[in-house]
Design brief:
This is Class I SAM-dependent methyltransferase. Helices cover 33% and strands 23% of the residues. By secondary structure, it is of the alpha/beta class. The protein has a single domain (29-209), classed as Rossmann fold, CATH 3.40.50. Bound molecules: S-adenosylmethionine. The site of S-adenosylmethionine (SAM) has 21 residues, from loops.
């Protein structure tokens, strides 16, 4: 595992985006949690919405591949920050050069994915990682799109949930407020859910259905 992590961190952007990672001691930060959940739940399918350079898809994809059952990671990202996800061959190379070959990328928004044939065929999902556009409305849409597909033992994670803050990720002229925390506060009022915050890095929140 350490060898894989060191190779992962050779790409300098893999320590960005607030997952509390640290290259110096091969520390995946919150990535350990993502990896562990995928090894414990052992889902045949996991979904990631949004990623800057693929840290979460790679960690979850690796975990699924390490499970004896295998599994597939569906990664939804329309590449709105820059062109990084636009070329399908470059995307597959980016993942396979890091030893992960079970990621299927959808170059689309969650809105577009939700009306696609792939969504109709999706079936059960054991892990959903929400890290796309961080408005309250989009977090709600991302959650609603997948909550009914969640397996009974499944977990939904929402990243950047620790604080409300301004992001200039899409340029100074498109600065906006991260308001995932506001959506999470709404989920906490739902007695049918267990909602647990981990305020490390930019924070991640885990959600599961308590009666499941
Ligand atoms: C860089 S990541 C993680 C967010 C980051 N921590 C930030 O500061 O905003 C955001 C990703 O979400 C993707 N994205 C934006 N809007 C989306 C949408 N409607 N559906 C799916 N992905 C989306 C972008 O293409 C981008 O790659």
């Amino acid at each position: 595992m350490r060898e894989w992590i060191d190779k992962l961190f050779e790409h300098e952007d893999m320590v960005r985006m607030g997952h509390h990672q640290r290259a110096a001691d091969g520390n995946l930060g919150l990535g350990w949690l993502y990896y562990a959940l995928a090894r414990v739940i052992r889902p045949s399918r996991a979904v990631v919405i949004g990623s800057f350079r693929g840290f979460v898809p790679l960690v979850l994809g690796k975990a699924l591949a390490d499970n004896a059952e295998g599994g597939e990671l569906w990664f939804i990202d329309p590449s709105l920050v820059d062109d990084f996800w636009k070329d399908p061959e470059a995307v597959q190379r980016h993942f396979s050069e890091r030893g992960v070959k079970n990621i299927r990328h959808f170059l689309m928004t969650t809105q577009q994915f939700a009306v696609s044939e792939s969504y109709r065929l999706l079936g059960e999902v054991g892990l959903v990682f929400i890290d796309g556009y961080h408005s309250e409305e989009q977090a709600r849409f991302d959650y609603a799109t997948f909550e009914n597909h969640l397996s009974p033992e499944g977990i939904i994670l929402l990243h950047d949930s620790a604080v409300v803050r301004t992001s200039r990720m899409y340029g100074d002229d498109r600065a906006y407020e991260h308001r995932v925390k506001c959506f999470v506060d709404e989920l906490k009022k739902d007695a049918r859910l267990q909602v647990f915050d981990l305020p490390f890095g930019r924070g991640v929140t885990m959600v599961r259905k308590s009666g499941a």
